[in-house]
Amino acid sequence: MIEQQLSILLVVLPLLAAPIIAVINRSSIAWAMTLSVTVCCLIMSVWMLSGVVDGSVIHYELGGWAPPWGIEYRIDTLNGLVALIVCGIAAATALYAKRSVEQEIPKHQIPMFYCAFLLCFLGLLGICLTGDIFNLFVFLEVSSLSSYALIAMGRNRKALTASFHYLVLGTLGATFFLIGVGLAYGATGTLNMADLSVRLPQAVDTHLVNTAFALIVVGVALKAAIYPLHLWLPNAYSFAPSVVSIFLSATATKVAIYVLIRCLFHVYSVEYVTNTLLPQLLIVMGGVAVLYGSMRAIGQTGMRKMLAYSSVAQIGYMIMGIGFLTEAGLTASLIHLFNHALMKAALFMAAGLFIYRANTATFENIKGLGREMPWTFAAMVIAALSLIGVPGTVGFVSKWQLLQAALEENHWPMVVIILVGSLLAIIYVWKLIEVLYFQPREKMRVTGVASGSENIGRSPISMAVTLWILALSCIYFGINTELSMDTAKSAVEILFAADGGQR
Amino acid sequence: MSQTQQQDETKDEALGFFDKPNNVKWILWVFYALCIVLVALDFVVHRHIYLDYEKIPTFYALYGFLACVLLVVAAKWLRLLIMRDEQYYDKNEEEKPFENEGSN
Amino acid sequence: MSTSTLMIIAMLLPLFGALVISRLNKAPNIREVITIITSASLLGIVIAIFNQLSQGNVERIVLAEPFNGIAIAFSIESLGMMFALVASSLWLVTSIYAIGYMRAHHEKHQTRFYALFAIAIAAVMAICFADNLFTLFLFYEVLTLSTYPLVTHSGDEKAKKSGRIYLGVLMGSSIGLFLLGVLLVWHFTGSLEFTDGGIVDGKIPAYWIAPVYALFILGIGKAAVMPMHKWLPAAMVAPTPVSALLHAVAVVKAGVFAILKVTLLIFGPDTIVESGANHWLIWLPMLTILLASLVAMTKDNLKERLAYSTISQLSYIVLGAMLANSMGLLGGTLHIAMHAFGKISLFFAAGAILVTLHKTKISELSGMGRKMPFTFTVFLIGTLSIIGLPPFGGMWSKWYLALGTIDFTGPDFTRWALLGTLMLSSLLNIAYLAVIPVKAFFGKIELGQEIKAKEAPLPCLVGMAIPAIICLILFFYPEPFYSLARAATLSL
Amino acid sequence: MWIANLPPFIPFFIGALLLPFLPNKARYFTLLIPILGGLNLFFGAQDGNWHVIKLLEFDVQIMRVDKLSLMFGYLFHIAAFIAITYSLHVKDKLQQTAGLLYAGSALGAVFCGDLIGLFIFWELLALTSVWLIWARRTEKANKAGVRYLIFQVLSGVLLLAGTLVHYQTTGSLAFDFIGLESVASWLIFIALGTKCAFPFLHSWLTDGYPEATPTGAVFLSAFTTKVAVFALARTFPGTELLVYIGAAMTCFPIFYAVIENDLRKVLAYSLINQLGFMVCGIGIGTALALNGAVAHAFNDVIFKGLLFMTMGAVLHRVGHVMGSDLGGLHKTMPKTTIFCIVGAASISAFPLFSGFVSKSMVMAAMIEAGHEYLWLMLLFASAGVFHHAGIKIPFFAFFAHDSGLRPKEAPTNMLFAMFFASALCIFIGTYPDLMYSLLPWENTYQPYDITHTLTQLQLLFFSALAFVWLNKMGLYPPELRSVNIDMEYLYRKMLPEIGRSTRKATSAFGTSGRLMFTKMVSYAPRMSKTSSYSTAQTAKRMAAILAIMLLLGYVTKMI
After folding, report:
1. Which of these, A348, C21, C254, D369, has the minimum number of CB atoms within 10 Å of its CB?
2. CA distance D281 to D294
3. Which residues of chain C have a CB within 8 Å of the CB of B101?
4. What is the tens place of the pLDDT at every residue in A89-129?
5. Is residue B102 included in any domain, yes or no?
6. Which tens digit of pLDDT belongs to each residue from D43-99?
7. Residue-range domain boundaries for chain D
8. CA distance readout (Å), D279 to C76, D54, D158, D356
């Protein structure tokens, strides 16, 4: 079956491309390769997803070793969907990247930048595809390490500290995760996730199992920037190069959420999770995250930081959905995973365009920019409306689904919090729109831009087109939800099926 | 509005009929006479009587006289109660032009 | 052409017009011609749909189905037809008027203005044709967003502030309350289809009906039931044609239209009556009618006073819906049309005053009626129609609303209070609206105010005359609005 | 040549619609409208229900002819003729247009056959008449006009409410006897009462009429209240309550009239007083009483119109009608003076003048009905009328002390109108049979017998004697420039005061609210601070969460 080959090809392709880029060391080729690799991956992931969307599972045994012993790549609807998100965003980012990278990254570093980018992409993709929990950790580290490097390339000096903090914390989280995996291994003697799910319930030492569970959850929670472990996120996203913040904001946390879902519902079972108090904890943390993130977003004075805090809030929605422990709730989370990737990427792209023109994206500097860049502005407004959850956009779809899930469970406080979160979103989104449109334009600052560079006056077509593709997909997937909704539903069905997706 | 308000030209005119006190006096005497005649007639003419009060001699004359005196006296008292200066209603409207007037 | 084709054209035509208009920044004359042509042909198409409807040709278009069982779908029924007729006919009138106004007033960004205007109309058409609550909600939001730039047209600090209030109230209420209402209906019934007699009967527990209904009444902020009314006066910073069409006709009527639809086709009047939800909720529109009138009296800014008058009048319609009996609903529905023509006359007149005299305050208008007799005559006609005096159309809606209050099933006290409110409101209308033309016609011209006599530009006058004349015609011949309103409420 | 059963309002409306577009001279032709219309009505109308037009689902009857409506139809044509003649010199076409519309509306109301039609014309009466006040073009008149309109529309909406409730409960919209039974009928009753100037609902009349233009007041005095009398006669004949209301209406205004300075306001009060007689007649409800009421309405229109015309002439020439500042006008306005005296004699019901032949019908009916005390009140009112309308008006305007004013005689058209009205007063007074033959009910009343003539003369002469005596003694209240508080106080003083204080209170409340909000916001934590987080902090949090989870894990296990 060709889909089986696809699953490994998805990982191999960037893995091969990354060193080649590093070796050739030419920026234009680096970009072209990155683009082609990501586009290829996108096509393959679509293909792959179409194969699993009906509920079937693709198994690929690495090196021909049978599963419990060898590493298995195991693709069902859930990771097919997440892989599609990662690939899609990566392809869009790559299309967008060229001009932005040229401006923001020193010329000699560009090939290495793309190399790191591909590695990061590889890592995230690998996390999605693997069926082995240790292998998952490895990919986690691959993606994390490369993303530290990527963030550190930001022009602002603070990028370095942000990256450093992220590094320390990310490592800490990874360590937690690793210890958890180790304990689980100790309890069951297997690292294959499917196998783990069978053996964990039978494990003798429940303390070990419990402790492993706690460690894994905490470690992943940090990577997913779940409140209150979100502290690294705002700085990391807002000081990274635009392309990096686009890519990471749309994928990294999503993949971490995926890992959480995978561990809770697959490795451990729904019954197990139900017996812990974690769901309640997740709901509460989600609710707080929504309110806290939105409030902080309102207070920000820079566009990217605002978006970063908004991400914290949006992650809150997702874990809230997980915490409901129902099919509807989990579906809502998965849809929001998909939708949020689209809109946040679009918003960060808009921010990137503003940075391209105004050098930074602080409100101080982008006053009145919306009038000069009407197309960018319009696309940004669409994505921003999506963030609010205006009907007709993707944001509405997920919010509707989540509200419905909350209602099913009679979680009234959460219903209120979700609605209040939307209202708060109106406030910060409109703050941004007013800054961009109503504030009188001030003289543009041109610090940090080489004198005489002529590309400041216009937004590059490639960037604008990518932005518009994402903005329009925000509307398209808001009206035609076949892809996101059906996939999510089928994924959830598998997770909730009695056999835990053992097909 | 016509402009015939000539205030100080009255002396040029001939005195009118009613300007002469004698004329007025004369009219009043005729009037008194008529009153007396009417009272006298009351005793001469046979009135239809519908109500008890009407049996009182010269009931209508008395009633008319008393009613009017009463009316005027009462009205004078009423004045104490309800009379205000001409600008009474317009006073407050100067503070806030064109608001709330006639609001019901 | 089939009904569905016509409906699609009706929704796309303004959009297409907007597209063409937006490309014609350099050629204002052609742009205006296109606007007029678009609006005229839209009216033609809507009339064609009306013919189809009266022949019983009703079709349903499903555009997409974002959620299982919730489709973006369109079809046509009497209520929507009536709203579509009102909106499209007044768009034509407003377009004519706007040409005169925008040029005489030297507004900037006229292209943007006309284009956004057309988009807003497209949204209104979609609201008219919405086949289920979800579609209605969707285009309700689209309308909010597409009119936001019109409100903030001038782009100055004041416009920005007003825009905040506009958006804050409308989006806030719709997302915070309206959405929740829709969601609850979906949650309880598993359907959002507009159905004769409603869908909630027996599915929503009786004690839930009043709260959910309240969510709709307050959540549909465009209906401006107090305390959700603040946006309407704020929106008055927009150019007058915007205020006229959108904030007297399209946007606000979209709100009350939504409330009528929800009452008629989601809850079903019978359910509301049985649950007793309207017994206490009806105090909301009732108090709004009175309070808004009282506030209107204190406003010296002409457009602001008209805005408060609109708030008060909108609550007539909400009240009609909440009466939940055939007469009340008929009156409320009829009032959509009657108030639209009356109020747009008022706004046009206000705009003409602004354009020629550059006056926004009522206190400055003393004696100006003698300079602009035509304008103030239009204003007077609008006023009289709003008050509900014969021989103007406003009388009929008041008539049926009053009949509806008499049929009200709630406590006797409430019933009489309702009737009294309608009566008292007519008087208040005189006190704050009729005084304006009177002052203008018969007041003294203040010293230093001797302005050369002149009326507004010709397109303005033409635009003003039409709705004023229609106000008069509607008294003698309220068709087709009457029969549509009748048909919409016939099922009771 | 006559158009059979033409609804009489139509020529008036057509004339009014054409007038604004015709040259100024065209106003002379408007005279033809009441003449031809009246003749057409006289020759062309047959009893029955003629034209029905369909409005929505209702059949509105606009031409219902019976003796009652015909009587008022003739009356209104005569009144319109007089008023139009009187206003011919006015170049302000607004007034003539409004006048025509107003007269037409009154005719429409009189000939309509159901309550919808009544409501429509009822409101049109309000709407068209108010222009006659506004046309005065003073700030005071503007406001008075608005107040007038509010009251009229109040009456209209009450009628609407009553009609609708009536319709809803009985299913009938017939404009026939209703009787005071249900809430609906009460609403209609009050609606009619408002236009009929019942006590406490009368202030629009005394407030509005004196502010009207000289010619406007003539129109106003003729139609609105008489339409109300007509409607009461149709719907509430024989309602006991009306007798008491009527008696009250005859009495209370005369106190005001005596001390009022504005002579047209005096006339307005005396209008209420005359209405009282009619209302009494309707309340008694016997054929004699109803005939009396209708006949008195007929006469009242003419003599009250005549009085308003004379005062209008004074106003036209002098510029005001303040009793305190007038006097001695008989010298230069002798004809007006004579007409005024004729009017005064008529209103006071001197024998041989028109008031005598109609008022006595009501009085007689009152006795027949056995209302002795009320009869005494009416008698008191009769004396009072003479006192304030019969003597006070002519005396203070044309005689009294010489104010030095020497205005010109009134314009010819005014004189002609006044002459015509005077002639009618005397004609009806001396030859009442013609009018009696038109009365709607069976009529055998004979006004002129010795008893009646004598008693009436006694009453009037001794009232006059009282006036003379009081004047000689210096007891008579002098005319003073003043305003007398009436029901208007409620809405001209009290309500605005309440509104003002409420506004003050709410705005204070709002201000303090805003202040509090600002304060609260300033206390709120500043969310915009850029966080300087530490890695250690996050690590601690991680440890804490881990600990919590582990603890919870153990706890749940133990449980």
Report:
1. D369
2. 8
3. 431, 435
4. 999 999 998 888 888 888 888 999 999 999 999 999 999 88
5. no
6. 888 888 888 888 888 888 888 999 999 999 999 999 999 999 999 988 888 898 999
7. 11-236, 238-478
8. 57, 34, 19, 17
Query: For position D392, what pLDDT does the model report?
Result: 86
Q: How far is B26 from chain D (nearest CA, A)?
A: 14
Contact present, A275 and D558 (Cβ < 8 Å): no
B99/C298 CB distance under 8 A: yes
Residues in B touching D376 (Cβ below 8 Å): 53
Mean pLDDT of A442-451: 52
For residue D14, give every residue at least 6 positions away whose Cβ sits within 8 Å of its Cβ, in sequence order, or none. none
Kindly state the average pLDDT of the residues D351-355: 91
Query: Do B4 and B24 belong together in one domain?
Result: yes
Clarify whether residues B35 and B72 are in a common domain. no
Cα distances (angstroms) measured from residue D114 to each of A194, A391, C394, D118:
87, 53, 20, 6
Instruction: Report how far residue D253's alpha carbon sits from residue D266's, in angstroms, rounded to the nearest whole number.
Output: 9
Of C45, C68, C42, the C-alpha closest to C120 is: C42
Which residues lie below 8 Å from residue B45, measured CB to CB, with a gap of 6+?
A: D450, D451, D454
Give the up-direction half-sphere exposure of residue D149: CA atoms within 13 A in the CB hemisphere.
32
Residue D276, pLDDT above cutoff 90: yes
Classify residue B31: in a domain, yes or no: yes
How many domains does chain B divide into?
A: 2
B22 and B2, same structural domain? Answer: yes
> A235 to chain D: which residues are within 8 Å by CB?
533
Highest average pLDDT, of A218-222, A362-366, B97-101, comes from A218-222
| Domain membership flag for residue B103 | no
d(CA C411, CA C280): 9
Q: Give the residue numbers spanning the domain of B6.
A: 1-45
User: Is the minimum CB–CB distance between D542 and chain A shorter than 8 Å?
Assistant: yes
CA distances from D108 to D6, D117, D122 (A): 11, 8, 9
Asked if C175's CB is within 8 angstroms of A426's CB, the reply is: yes
D451: how many CB neighbours lie within 10 A of its CB?
14
Residues ≥6 apart with Cβ < 8 Å to A241: A100, A101, A104, A105, A113, A150, A153, A154, A155
DSSP characters over D344-357? HHHHTT-TTSHHHH
Running DSSP on this structure, what letter comes out for residue C155?
-
Rounded distance between C-alpha atoms, residue A55 and residue A492, angstroms: 10
For the segment C393-404, what is each residue's pLDDT rounded down to a tens digit? 899 999 999 999
Does residue D533 sit at the A interface (CB-CB below 8 Å)?
yes
Instruction: Out of C155, C175, C187, name the one closest to residue A389 (CB).
Output: C175
Question: In angstroms, what separates the C-alpha of C229 from chain A's closest C-alpha?
Answer: 18
D532 in contact with chain A, both atoms CB, cutoff 8 A: no
φ and ψ at residue C361, rounded to 5 degrees: -95, 140
Could you give the ipTM of this predicted complex? 0.86
- Lowest pLDDT segment from C126-130, C358-362, D273-277: C358-362
Question: For residue A293, what is the nearest residue in chain D, using CA coordinates?
Answer: D527
Q: CA nearest C290 in B: which residue?
A: B104
In chain C, the percentage of residues whose pLDDT exceeds 70 is 98
Among all residues of chain C, which has the CA nearest to that of D491? C431
Same domain as B40, residue B5? yes
Calculate how close chain D gets to C83, using CA atoms only, in Å: 20
- Percent of chain D topping pLDDT 70: 97
Residue C490 contacts D where some CB pair is shorter than 8 Å: no
Q: What is the pLDDT of residue C359?
A: 83
Of A177, A148, A179, A178, the C-alpha closest to A165 is A148
Residues of chain C neighbouring A406 (CB-CB closer than 8 A): none
pLDDT value of residue A448: 47
